[in-house]
Automatic annotation (TrEMBL):
Its main location: membrane. GO terms for cellular component: cell outer membrane. Residues 118-224 form the TonB-dependent receptor plug domain. It is found in: Cell outer membrane. This is TonB-dependent receptor. InterPro entries: Beta-barrel_TonB (IPR000531), Beta-barrel_TonB_sf (IPR036942), CarboxyPept-like_regulatory (IPR008969), Plug_dom (IPR012910), Plug_dom_sf (IPR037066), TonB-dep_rcpt-like (IPR039426).
Amino acid sequence: MKKFILVVFATLLCPYVLWAQFSLQGKITNAENQQLLAGATLSLDNSLFTIQTNEKGNFLFKNLKKGTYTLKASYVGFKTQDITLVLDANKTINLTLTKSTLLTDEVIVSATRASENSATTYKNLSKEDLEKNNFGQDLPFLLNQTPGAVIYSDAGAGIGYTGIRIRGSDPTRINATINGIPYNDTESQGTFWVNLPDFASSVDNIQIQRGVGTSTNGAGAFGGSLNIQTTTLSDSAYGEVNSSVGSYQTLKNTLKLGTGLINGKWSFDGRLSRIVSDGYVDRSASNLKSYFLSGAYYGENSLLRLNVFSGKERTFQAWNGINDEKLATNRRFNSFTYDDQTDNYQQDHYQLLYSKSFSSQFSFNGALHYTKGSGYYEEFKDDEELANYGLDNVVIGNQTITNTDLIRRRWLDNDFYGLTYAFNYTPTSDLNFTLGGAYNEYDGDHFGEVIWAKYASNGNIRQQYYFDNGFKTDFNVFGKASIELNKVSLFADLQYRTVNYKFLGFDNNLNNVTQEASLDFINPKLGFTYQLNTQGNFYASFSIANKEPNRNDYTESSINSRPKPENLKNIEAGYRFKGQTITGGVNIYSMLYKDQLVLTGQINDVGAYVRSNVDNSYRNGIELDGTVKITPTFNWGLTAAFSQNKVKNFVEFIDDYDNGGQIQNNFSKTDLAFSPSFVGSSTLAYKPFKNGEIALLTKYVSKQYLDNTSNDARKLNAFFVNDIRLGYDFRLKKLKKLSLGLLVNNVLNELYESNGYTFSYIAGGLTTENYYYPQAETNFLFSMNLKF
């Protein structure tokens, strides 16, 4: 398979395929002052061609076939222009664009986005891309066909707790922002998309940057970043009703409404969603609700937008996974049998976004934000020690009872708030400066309650048995500069970030008292892009990123055993091009880690299993991403990611119950956990009718190890999964569109697992226990979407 994909990409990326007859060239200027517009975007509707004007405002399409085309020209801050033309000879056409009276929503995220000429590895997904695959599954499942991505679901069907890894990096190492505002949990640094069900229905576009990427706000990007922009201005009023139904009693209902532009100034959009599913795994049901509201005011040179959105989830727990024995006999087994073993959480987001264009050269965008989160998970625990819950032993006659069955709730009640900002200055068309940053605060309470106990002793209802608070501040400021010199574009990006964290942890004497940690990071980035021609460019960059440990790394260690922050040096180089029938790119990267935190099995001085710093580890790889227009009705998209992911020296610790203590095993140059050496995807899309499409979506992931020992007894097997997606749009007199869709997942019924964990111990010999999260067998989702 690897050889086949390499051959296919080598063929696709050749520059000499399918020469045609004619060319289309010209220049684009500002209608107001005739200034040349460098970097304007042009596209042709009958091809994959999308190009940008050069530093002199010129553009050139080569090798076009005879026919009728619609040429679209756009530039930020100007009105988009569409021109229909007949091409039967070489043609020159000059365009003038007029300034828009409205500021576009894209300026909100422009400071943290990579552009077409930037030396950054990225993938853009449009609203249309997301809509095709949005049948109600969580956001990670809509990103499955992007390079190097591996997705997983606790409940197995993509609804509930889900996640995504990019280049083998878990969600705590993937920076996620919504309109430039950090979304990662401040303490754990993870992303929990279950708290925003059906959020994709309110997303306009997503940019996925791999590697360190450009400076942004929030958690450090140690494998990638997800830059999400929500609903933007609609051309006209609209309404939409979307419903999906499918396997495992899955049901999704979505209502969307929007006013379009009112009196040339105002717009309002709203969404209400509900998703329910029993899940593939037994007793892993989800009941999810969410809403999204947005109102915007468009001034002459300004934009003010208020977003309010919320998600409420109730999911039955499937966190424990399934061991080897049960996996072989009952893939849907769930060890939790208590009928209210649930996770319950609500998250409310408030965003006030403002953008102002002071002149054609100087602009500002900023945001104030507040997120309120509150909820608990409930669980049954058997034979727990009363003393661990602040309860006295129970004496009945001559019997002293020290343990009890009980039901407990563990709560999280947090507030996250702050501001982000960016100033952009473009003195000339070939010079750009950005100054941005953010200040955020997080205040989170963690506490536990006993709501029932077989032997309640001296406890009260909702007996609180622990309480601690985490308070974290995060300040960053970054400056970016880019300059274009003929065909070369140079950029420099420097970020300063300081983090202060107060938490309940252990001091030198192992007393559990309030602790404080402060960290300062300098994150520089340098790169260049060389424009080979109007269709392709070569780029290279070098970046450094730093990342603080997670909450558990701090709270479950002492000052003496507290881990160090992680450091990453990232080298990226690649070539990308856009042609009439083929668009694609190839990227080579090297990610060199210093003090990366990994699980080793070691017990520290406070008795906790913690992550430990490993001195040197790395990820080297090559990524390919391309689309070929085989015929006007048949497209083929391909991605392939080959990588080598290693720890140079790794020490494993195993509990020895026979002799006490732990034993150590030393390894050299082993594979990093959850880092497959190959990830590939294919999307074959065929339009047999004008309004209909059939697509075959294929994903292959090579084997992954559950830990860092490269032990084949502790691994996830490779899997090869195929989905079929059908869609058809009906045009009706009283409706804009009626769309029907069918998604058949795992049509070949592959039995596979995409996530898991392992641990070992010695008790009469070495025992290793693996736990897996099995993914669903063949299943379907059917959707109907009414737009009016």
